[in-house]
Amino acid sequence: MAFDIEMIEKVYSNLTSRVDKARALVGRPLTLTEKILYSHLWEGVPSIVYERGKDYVDFAPDRVACQDATAQMALLQFMHAGKSKVAVPTTVHCDHLIQARDGAKQDLAFANKQSKEVFDFLSSVSNKYGIGFWKPGSGIIHQIVLENYAFPGGMMIGTDSHTVNAGGLGMLAIGVGGADAVDVMSGMSWELKFPKLIGVKLTGRLNGWTAPKDVILKVADILTVKGGTGAILEYFGEGAKAMSCTGKGTICNMGAEIGATTSTFGYDDSMRRYLTATGRQDVVDAADKVASYLTADEEVYANPEQYFDQLIEINLSELEPHINGPFTPDRGTPVSKMKEEAAKNDWPIKVEWGLIGSCTNSSYEDMSRAASIVEQAVAYGITPKAEFGINPGSEQIRFTIERDGILATFEKMGTKVFTNACGPCIGQWDRAGAEKQEKNTIVHSFNRNFSKRADGNPNTHAFVTSPEMVAVLAISGRLDFNPITDTLINDNGEEVKFLPPQGEELPTKGFAVDDPGFQAPAADGSSVEVIVSPTSDRLQLLAPFAPWDGKNITGAKLLIKAYGKCTTDHISMAGPWLRYRGHLDNISNNMLIGAENAFNGKVNSVKNQLTGVYDEVPKVQRAYKVAGIPSIVVGDHNYGEGSSREHAAMEPRFLGVKAVLVKSFARIHETNLKKQGMLALTFANESDYDKIQEDDTINFLDLTEFAPGKPLTIAFVHSDGSKDLILANHTYNDSQIGWFKAGSALNLIAAGKF
């Protein structure tokens, strides 16, 4: 039986009437996305038509999911909300704090010892507040959500940008910051600008070496890392129906890499098969009663150009395997073009590592298809040229692939099996030799490949591709190997050619697991004590941020003018810093240390205007904080791209940064800044970015008149006494301005005014 089946049945009981009302209001057929949005309005039954890309709307998500790194701060905030129990079903998953090094058993034991304090905190706080807790080693959050909680037509939010993975089961699943999650856990509405809609029509059928991963790699190449911003992608067509449910999840997962709010697919037989295989026949029975409401109206897919703001069409029968990268997930190269592109760009051809897993590609189908390539290599007598590692997506996946001999196949080739956790995908990889910072190439099936993300080496060229392509590239040891046309020489000097991968969508014997690693919460958590040591360097209770004093911000200093790509990895790195995710003071020592200073081209080197000396960004900002001097950060396009981590907003807020002024924001980061009481502003004229000088002092001239739709005027006073007046746009509505005035959204919740 499914978790929370009563909640799911309640969603379906309201679905038909709310969708019918919305269709009548809008006056036309509805997309699946619109059906889910209008059936999850905070007001209940729809009463007005919302304008895409313009109207802010309050929603009522069905559930919340948190991973351990972000859950710490989210739950520390929730403890301030004054609630005895979460208002909607919520889960916490321990998957980020387990470092990949020696292998599953040793790495998990080390993590349980090293992070015991954090795991104990998460276990106890979950037990107290009615939250389901998935223990270390149970699996990766998004794979577990797909296996246990996702359901067609539902809406969920999660404190990880790849929450969108659940779109593979027909949900609208959206990554948010912890403060958003706290709102929903506290029984409040969740606000989102009504998104635009991008339709992706998939014709034909995947075949040969092409996998679901190649669909999203192609879409990323088309739309770029910001092309989906403010939009939801809805996939449909014969190619979509022919694809597995977990394959759909892979596509939705990497929608985060194009800035999309989320992605989804309509309810179909692949979802029925997956739900049944994972023990949720009751969800199938309930969904089948409202099946026509769990996909778009027929007219929409028949004439999609009339209903979507943008339409993309991909013929899967003609789609080539893609290898995207390096350093950005939207630089797509078809496998047939890699030899040419690698030579032209001087990319290292030798593949040092192949890595399969992460929340993107760790399903049974992924593992079985990759194993079919490994099996061929073993049969052909080929010694792999690169090292090889896998992360199973969950204990259920690991147990099942061990039972079915898939793990044994990998191990015949010397594969290192890491813990059921994120591992290298989020920088939790103690890679031997990475400290030498040598130029090298790795291939992986993850979702992100930003500089330094996997192993901390800025010279590691990481390429994203499908699990089966990872396997064959690792075996060949060459980035430019094309398995469709090329051959290899085996250990006996014989020429051999790989056959296309084969695999099972679902295990024929069914899934199996001894201990999935789940801890149900106490029925009454009132007596459960949550202990946080005042001397801990891993956990720190939060103090409320101070409210705005009602005055213009004056005398502020420029902390940094960031140049180029500035993701949340640049603003608040993961890797070894994950250990401090529950300690705001300590984690703030990584603030913006990866951002490039536009004035000297260096990272973690900015001018302290009080001394004239260049120093590390956090040290300079702490000096301003001690002196009582406010500061601002200036950035480029798509600032805050990447992870949902709210630490990238909380750290500057904690250290005294008042505003972030950029050319454009990634959606989640902009919201995170707003929720923490920061000013998130954009240049009205992007060329004004060039006017910002290193020694500038900044004065806000009309912050006292802060209002929706009204730009702010900021004076940048240069060291020679001259100044530039710059207009800064914003997207704050009245309630968000209330967050700023109160010091944070949480302050309003705690005061009972939200």
Describe the protein in words.
It is a single chain. The protein has 754 residues and is an alpha/beta fold. The chain folds into three domains: 5-317, Aconitase, domain 3 (2-Layer Sandwich), CATH 3.30.499.10; 320-488, Aconitase, domain 3; 556-750, Alpha-Beta Barrel (Aconitase, domain 4). The chain is 31% helix and 17% strand. The strands form eight sheets. The chain has a seven-stranded mixed β-barrel with strand order 22-25-26-27-30-29-28. Strands 6-5-2-3-4-21 form a six-stranded mixed β-sheet, covered by helices on one side. The chain has a five-stranded parallel β-sheet with strand order 16-15-14-17-18, covered by helices on one side. Strand 2 (63-67), helix 3 (68-78) and strand 3 (90-93) form a beta-alpha-beta unit.
Keywords:
754 residues, alpha/beta, Aconitase, domain 3, Aconitase, domain 4, 6-stranded mixed sheet, 31% helix, iron, metal ion binding, tricarboxylic acid cycle, transit peptide
The structural class is alpha/beta
CATH architecture name of the largest domain: 2-Layer Sandwich
CATH homolog superfamily of the largest domain:
Aconitase, domain 3
Oligomer: single chain
Distance N to C terminus: 36 Å
Gyration radius, rounded: 25 Å
> Could you give the order of strands across the largest sheet?
22-25-26-27-30-29-28
CATH topology of the largest domain: Aconitase, domain 3
Q: Mind summarizing the main beta sheet?
A: 7 strands, mixed, barrel
The parts where pLDDT drops under 50 for at least 5 residues are none
Please tell me what the overall shape is: globular
Helix content percent band? 25-40%
Number of strands: 30
How much of the sequence lies in strands comes to: 15-25%
Mean pLDDT: 96
Discrete helix count: 25
